[in-house]
Amino acid sequence: MGFIDYDKKYDVIVVGAGHAGCEAALAAARMGCATLLLTINLDAIALMSCNPAIGGLAKGHLVKEIDALGGEMGKNIDATGIQFRILNTRKGPAVRASRAQADKQLYRLRMKHIMEQQERLHLKQAEVTGIVVEEGEVRGVDTKVGVRYRGATVILTTGTFMRGLIHVGLTHYPGGRAGDLPSVGLSDQLRDLGFAVGRLKTGTPARLDGRTIDFSRLEPQYGDDPPVPFSFSTERIDQPQVPCYIAYTNPRSHDIIRSGLDRSPLYAGVIEGIGPRYCPSIEDKVVRFPEKDRHQTFLEPEGRDTVEYYPSGLSTSLPIDVQWAFYRSIEGLENVEIMRPAYAIEYDYVDPIQLHSTLETKLVRNLYHAGQINGTSGYEEAAGQGLMAGINAALRVRGEAPVVLDRSEAYIGVMIDDLVTLGTREPYRMFTSRAEYRLLLREDNADLRLREVGHRVGLVGEGEYRLFLEKRERIGAELSRLKGAKLLPSEADPAFLEEFGMANLQNALTHEQLLRRPDLTYEELCRIDPVAAQVPPAVREQVEIQIKYQGYIERQLDQVERARKVEGTAIPADFDYIAIPGLSAEVREKLVKFRPDTLGQASRIQGVTPAAVGILALALKARG
Ligand code: FAD
After folding, report:
1. Which residues bind FAD (predicted)?
2. How far apart are CA 476 and CA 612, in angstroms?
3. How far is Cα of residue 229 from the mean position of the Cα atoms in its chain?
4. In Å, how far from its chain's centre is CA 208?
5. How many angstroms separate the alpha carbon of residue 158 from the centre of ligand 1?
């Protein structure tokens, strides 16, 4: 087919306007690149395919990092959230995480508005059917209506759309997500180019009509008061919050589910894609945990001005008649009407092992992949990758060195390193347990870790950067003030000393020493330290964590320092592993297949032994 060449040439072309595509396109345009975003449906920009929520365990960390780097997700949820909560407040700071319910339609509309206002960013509705590759480099994309757009770099963020196949019971039909067309042709071309294209699966629950739910029989769950924003740039959340409701399945629900398994595409062997182990469907849970007689669900409102509710944890691909009976077996949902049925979707993804740490593909220069196309699952995972792909494509256009976050700097770094080093055979989602330096990678210090990077590439504006510098300075000043401020036994309030087990105190203690005591918080310190009471909450939080966890933090910093030597040693792309004596055939084969960018990555490939890493290190040194 002949294509009509569009008369403009772009620096960056982004394919797809999901959570990865939005961050990628905004980053590239904000960094000065003429950017084109092509997507199948302009009304579905940043649409939440599944749960109407942002954040959660480890995902909240990703959002904070995206925000610190100058991305949009945190600001978007702050403006459109309808319930905000900090999870794990009783646990240590490393695992505390923010989560917010979103008004799904407002979230999408605000993101579309931001993109439309963005200078240098063109939005166009079109399905991309192929990429243009010349001399091993991507040069543009072709669209279904026969237009060829030329671009210096291309970022693919196709989500669940490539050869998407929707299943409800034994009925199935092509779709990128319920109500959206699939993307056809693109993954075949990628396979022809040598990419390893695989098949994954995910699922979503039904959407329920709130007018038919008996909320009086359910337990409400409210947000935090006051709500805490995601973005380091949001001062406060003003909009009122709405509750979610807790409900439970019961033995009858489970019997109904079991009775429908013979018509489940999953159990009848119709679905070939691998599903998310950590986000199983309700039929999976009932089969895998037969001893459990109930499963919890949160009924989450999809927005302020809609009656639709999302029952979290109840995704299914069972036939619609089984869905009717199953949802209605739950207390409070006896008369519930389903507005949109639950379904599963299978889609093509590309093995991320074929990517550099910059998210550029190893096979085609200037082509980047980000989001669910890389085998991940989740809005936040997608947005984090989209942002990094956008930054790196823009840096390529500007002729500057790429940005790669390492595992000690960010969860985004951990995620990308996991993907490009180990690949994935099942939907990958972020967990705090994936990070070896958890205590360094906290939500609260994401700005201290990453604001500089965001400012350096041009995504963090001068005003936001100034506020950050002031905060950092105040933290430093307060830390040194607390080292000098003293509690003198002769002048101290005896009741205070008694309360904290210091009735027999002989020598003066610095306020830093006091804060180190596990039972004494900053708030309590304010009772005897009037200057501390004037310190802003964000500075207080940081100072308190840095003092209380100093020993552990220093230990992790030591480990990072020791690992840095290996991490930082680059391996040239054309490195000849076959010529290195001493490597086993298995190790050689793995290294040739994975082509790690650094010695650190090589050390994480399964089967590459410490001895092999030592041999590699010597060979790299000899090469100079
Ligand atoms: P998407 O949000 O899927 O966006 C892809 C974008 O690319 C769309 O705008 C689409 O129109 C566009 N596009 C695709 N192909 C083309 C093309 N050829 N040309 C032009 N545009 C194109 N995540 C979870 O964390 N937990 C869950 O339980 C969960 N369940 C899910 C259930 C379902 C049914 C679905 C569909 C998704 C689910 N997800 C879940 C995944 C979540 O929606 C994604 O992880 C996230 O949206 C991925 O973001 P993305 O930007 O990579 O892709």
Report:
1. 16-21, 128, 183, 372
2. 43
3. 17
4. 27
5. 7
172 carries a ligand binding annotation: no
Q: What is the pLDDT of residues 55-113, one digit of tens each?
A: 999 999 999 999 999 999 999 999 999 999 999 988 888 889 999 999 999 999 999 99
Name the residue of 157, 345, 350, 385 whose CB sits within 8 Å of the most ligand 1 atoms, as the mutation to test its pocket: 157
Q: Is 375 in the pocket of ligand 1 (CB under 6 A)?
A: no
Tokens representing 540? 């207080």
The model's pTM: 0.94
Q: With contact defined as beta carbons under 8 Å apart, do 393 and 341 qualify? A: no
Question: 370: number of CA atoms within 13 Å, CB side?
Answer: 37
169 among annotated binding-site residues: no
Q: What are phi and psi of 118, to 5 degrees?
A: -75, 120
User: Helices then strands (H, E): number in the chain?
Assistant: 20, 22
Question: Which residues make Cβ contacts (< 8 Å) with residue 127, sequence separation at least 6?
Answer: 38, 40, 143, 144, 181, 183, 184
Q: Is the CB of 303 under 6 A from ligand 1?
A: no
DSSP 101: E
Residue 143 Cα to ligand 1 midpoint, Å, equals 19
Q: Is 220 annotated as a binding residue?
A: no
Q: Which residues pair with 4 in a beta bridge?
A: 147
**Rounded-to-5 percentages of helix, strand, coil across the chain:** 40, 20, 40
DSSP string, 361-377: BSSSBTEEE-GGGGTB-
Report the C-alpha gap between 611 and 319 in whole angstroms. Answer: 54
For the CA of 372, the nearest atom of ligand 1: 52
Q: Is 288 annotated as a binding residue?
A: yes
Residue closest via CA to ligand 1's atom 44 equals 378
Alpha helix stretches (DSSP H) within 160-247:
186-192
Cβ–ligand 1 distance for 19 under 6 Å, the answer: yes
Q: Confirm or reject: Cβ of 160 under 6 Å from ligand 1.
A: yes
- Site to probe by mutation for ligand 1, drawn from 47, 165, 377, 388 as the one with most ligand atoms within 8 Å of Cβ, is 377
